[in-house]
Amino acid sequence: SMTFNCIAYVNSPRDVSGVKSDLLFQILESLRNAKLPMTSPQSMVLRRLPPIAESHDDRD
Q1: What is the mean pLDDT of the chain?
Q2: Phi and psi at residue 45, to the nearest 5°
Q3: Residue ranges of the domains in the chain?
């Protein structure tokens, strides 16, 4: 597992998303070219549970 932390300074806040995207694609391309294995995104299964029956406790 690898974690990258990158800090970059850009001319304008409007440039942030474009620079971030360009860097990400360049890093991914470099990793692929270096034949480094990358994992697939993990899948997530969401299930709805049945409602919990109310407990009637008459010991008051």
Answers
A1: 85
A2: -110, 125
A3: 10-35
Phi, psi of 40 (to 5 degrees): -80, 155
Does the reported pTM lie above 0.85? no
The token duo for 37 is: 């294995």
Among 41-45, 49-53, 54-58, which stretch is predicted with the lowest mean pLDDT?
54-58
3-state secondary structure of 55: coil
Residues near 10 by beta carbon (within 8 Å), at least 6 away in sequence: 16, 19
Q: Give 31's Cβ-side CA count (13 Å radius).
A: 13
Tokens, residue 25 = 């694609």
Residue reference for tokens 């942030």: 16
Q: Is the CB of residue 10 less than 8 Å from the CB of residue 19?
A: yes
